[in-house]
Design goal:
The structure holds two protein chains of two kinds.
Chain A lengths: L1 E12 L2 E12 L3 E5 L6 H8 L7 E6 L2 E2 L7 H5 L2 E4 L10 H11 L4 H14 L15 H13 L5 E5 L7 H18 L2 E5 L3 H7 L2 E6 L2 E6 L1 H6 L4 H6 L4 E11 L2 E6 L2 E5 L7 E6 L4 E4 L10 E12 L3 E8 L1 E8 H7 L6 E6 L5 E4 L5
Parallel strand pairs in A: 3-8, 3-9, 6-7, 7-8
Antiparallel strand pairs in A: 1-2, 1-4, 4-5, 9-10, 11-12, 11-14, 12-13, 14-20, 15-19, 16-17, 16-19, 17-18
Chain B lengths: L1 E10 L2 E10 L4 E5 L6 H9 L6 E6 L2 E2 L10 E4 L11 H11 L4 H14 L15 H14 L4 E5 L7 H18 L2 E6 L2 H7 L2 E6 L2 E7 H6 L4 H6 L4 E11 L2 E6 L2 E6 L7 E6 L5 E4 L9 E13 L2 E7 L3 E7 H6 L7 E6 L5 E4 L1
Parallel strand pairs in B: 3-8, 3-9, 6-7, 7-8
Antiparallel strand pairs in B: 1-2, 1-4, 4-5, 9-10, 11-12, 11-14, 12-13, 14-20, 15-19, 16-17, 16-19, 17-18
The chains are: A alpha+beta, B alpha+beta.
Chain lengths: 362, 353
């Protein structure tokens, strides 16, 4: 069942159009990752879905209720949802009072507040700080206080707006584990905006990509990261190889494309005659000599033209008619003894080669 | 260029404790540490925004502990850019020059080249609210260097940027450092940024400087278990040296022998640090290898993380190897697969004591 249904959502601030034609459906109990460049409208969309501010147009249904028609029910609906922001907002009071605040506004009894605050702090691993002043805690701990203040109200939908952008890797892992557990054990629906692509892949059941104020593609992490719909999405999700090509044949379930004089085989049915070939760098393997056995349909010699460390990996550019960038571990690069000018063999599975219609320069 | 000599200062309940460090001219110096460790306080202390209670701050060879920020000739860029919302891009960038008495037209002429250099000429007449995060960050950086400082302080300049913009900005920073001869001090909690940008770095945890030195040394041969954990070393094992033959030690870790290069004597407690990308994984349990540390085990978990597969293996002790997802698929890896791990003795960093 869709717990959020948004159609043709629009939003402008003055003359600046921030959202247009946003269509999004979120199923109950799923984690949806919202990714996109800075300024693509992720935060604005979350604020509209959380009823913090209204859209300028379009249809929005939450829990099956048409919220455009039923403005009078916004407070009740808001209380079924919770939002965590990038920068934790904590009050200059004890951790206990910070977390209890939402329940006090809802008129909960002191026994109920006491029990639920303790449970919420236990859930985020902050029980020992219950009497501490929230503003004295570290950034990661303050973010967990803010999260427990949201969790204590038992939200059915949890919105997370770049919740770990300012946190160190350890604090990030803690927040991610809490969110995953909440979804798994309580069935909470989660929408998380992030510019950490790996986080989107790790946490989300589905991912929606926002580009220039609209949802450009939504699907499984595999679809988004391996089968982007267009070049802009491909660039944003970190595809290293975006190459113009032309379909030359299709037989036995394989499409052959010519790109820079090199024929590359793909399992994608031809979307057009003129195509763009999309290949992730980590899907390309490099070998010192022709592999004796290899399951890859694409196997050809190439010359290393550049090696660029990107920590902890190395981007290796090879020329084989067209230029390809392979992502290999530093250890693998060392073992292969890679150097500019070196001859190598490239292997690439046909299923790792995705084809999209050519859009022209861009 | 910049030296902290036993600096201590308190802010509310937080305190920097007896911090000593040296930043040389031309360094790209990183200050890293967990959230709340005191990284930004340290940066602000360099800028002169906090007065130490104890210790001395030296700048360009002179003590400047009590010198106010505006007289230090240091530029500071905050994570949230802090652009003036009512000024256009070109006026934001020229603001410092105007404050020094330069006329508006002259200041605009002066910064035109800078706008070109930072690729923001086309947005010169726009206001900050209409710019993307990456554009705002470029404007903030151009404004910071317009006054030609020789020291630039950056507080988490990349954390609010999306990955595509981050990559471009990293190239901007590398160019700025290389071409302008600036000394740059950057606060970050990203190990990847440190790998790509830092020449030297300090690790600060709970207000205390726990490691400092050349970036590759701190990242690969950390001084303590705590630092090893923070810089992201995936395999950290406690053990005891069983024997040492001319620097080639055998270390007992829970009944399993690891060979490593160290001066630690027999009986000494040590911690072994092994980067996951130094753990070579082969399928099968009988693989021959000339590598000193070769052990059979079984995969317990595979965590896919972007382009990477982190493979957890139990071979008596738990170890993590990392490879590209494609390699994991080629090897048909799955939980329960028997594998052999090999680790060069020289790839193991030994922390003594």
């Amino acid at each position: 069942m869709a717990i959020i249904e948004a159609h043709s959502i629009r939003k402008s601030y003055g003359s600046l159009e921030v959202l247009h034609d946003v269509d999004l459906s979120v199923q109950e109990g799923e984690i949806l990752g919202l990714i996109g460049p800075s300024g693509s409208g992720k935060s604005t969309l979350l604020r509209i879905l959380d009823l913090i501010e209204p859209s300028d147009g379009g249809a929005l249904s939450l829990f099956g209720i048409d919220v455009v028609a039923e403005r009078g029910r916004w407070l009740d609906l808001r209380r079924r949802m919770g939002m965590l922001f990038q920068r934790p907002i904590v009050f200059n009071a004890s951790v206990y009072d910070n977390v209890a605040m939402g329940l006090r506004y809802r008129g909960a009894s002191s026994d109920d507040i006491d029990r639920r605050v303790k449970e919420a702090l236990e859930a985020v691993g902050l029980s020992r700080y219950i009497g501490s002043r929230a503003t004295d805690l570290s950034g990661g701990e303050q973010q967990r206080v803010a999260l427990s203040r949201v969790l204590v109200t038992d939200p059915e939908i949890l919105f997370l707006d770049e919740p770990t952008a300012n946190l160190d890797p350890g604090s990030t892992a803690t927040i991610e584990a809490i969110v995953a557990r909440l979804n798994r054990e309580e069935g909470t629906t989660v929408l998380i905006s992030t510019h950490d692509l790996s986080q989107g892949q790790r946490l989300a059941h589905r991912v929606a990509v926002m580009i220039e104020g609209t949802v450009a593609q939504a699907g499984s992490p595999r679809e988004i990261f391996h089968e982007p719909r267009d070049q802009k999405i491909a660039r944003f999700v970190g595809v290293q190889n975006i190459i113009p090509g032309r379909v030359v044949s299709r037989k036995e379930g394989l499409t052959t494309v010519e790109a820079g004089g090199r024929q590359i085989v793909s399992t994608t049915p031809p979307p057009a005659e003129e195509v763009t070939v999309v290949i992730r760098g980590e899907d390309i393997s490099l070998h010192r000599r022709e592999p004796g056995y290899e399951e890859a349909e694409n196997l050809f010699p190439a010359t290393v033209t550049s090696i660029e460390p990107t920590a902890p990996f190395v981007n290796v550019t090879v020329h084989c008619g067209c230029d390809l960038v392979a992502l290999v571990t530093a250890r693998r690069a060392e073992a292969l003894g890679l150097a500019a000018g070196m001859q190598v063999w490239v292997s690439l599975q046909a299923k790792a080669v995705h084809l999209i219609p050519r859009e022209g320069p861009g | 260029m910049i030296a902290f000599d036993h600096i201590s200062l308190s802010l509310g309940t937080f305190s920097l404790k007896d911090v000593s460090l040296t930043i040389n001219r031309g360094d790209y110096y990183f200050i890293v540490g967990p959230s709340g460790a005191g990284k930004t306080v340290l940066l602000e202390a360099i800028a002169g925004l906090h007065r130490p209670e104890r210790g001395r701050v030296l700048l360009r060879g002179e003590e400047i502990t009590a010198l106010p920020p505006e007289k230090r000739g240091i530029a500071l860029v905050y994570q949230d850019y802090s652009l003036f919302p009512h000024m256009t891009v070109i006026d934001n960038v020229g603001y410092g020059l105007r404050m020094r008495g330069m006329g508006k037209r002259e200041a605009r002429g002066e910064v035109a080249g800078l706008l070109e250099e930072f690729g923001i000429s086309h947005i010169a007449d726009r206001y900050p609210a209409t710019l993307s995060g990456g554009e705002q960050q470029r404007v903030a950086l151009a404004r910071a260097v317009a006054g030609k400082p020789d020291i630039l302080l950056l507080d988490e300049p990349l954390s609010a940027l999306d990955p595509v913009t981050q990559e471009k900005f990293i190239h901007d920073l590398q160019r700025l450092h290389r071409e302008n001869g600036l000394t740059i001090v950057q606060v970050s909690h990203s190990r990847r940024e440190a790998h790509l940008l830092a020449t030297r770095m300090a690790v600060i945890i709970d207000g205390t400087l726990v490691d400092e030195g050349r970036a590759d040394v701190v990242l690969n041969t950390p001084r303590s278990r705590q630092v090893a954990s923070f810089v992201g070393i995936e395999n950290i094992l406690d053990g005891r040296v069983a024997a040492n033959d001319g620097g080639h030690a055998t270390v007992d870790v829970g009944g399993h022998a690891f060979e490593a290069v160290t001066d630690a004597a027999a009986g000494e407690e040590v911690t072994l640090c092994i980067r996951a990308d130094d753990v070579v994984l082969g399928v099968g349990d009988g693989r021959r290898s000339s590598t000193r540390n070769t052990m059979a085990g079984m995969i317990t978990q595979i965590v896919e993380n972007g382009p990477v597969a982190e493979v957890k293996v139990n071979c008596g002790v738990d170890l993590t190897a990392v490879l590209t997802r494609r390699s994991g698929q080629d090897l048909h890896l799955a939980p329960g697969t028997p594998v052999t791990l090999s680790i060069k003795a020289t790839a193991i960093h030994v922390i003594r004591g």
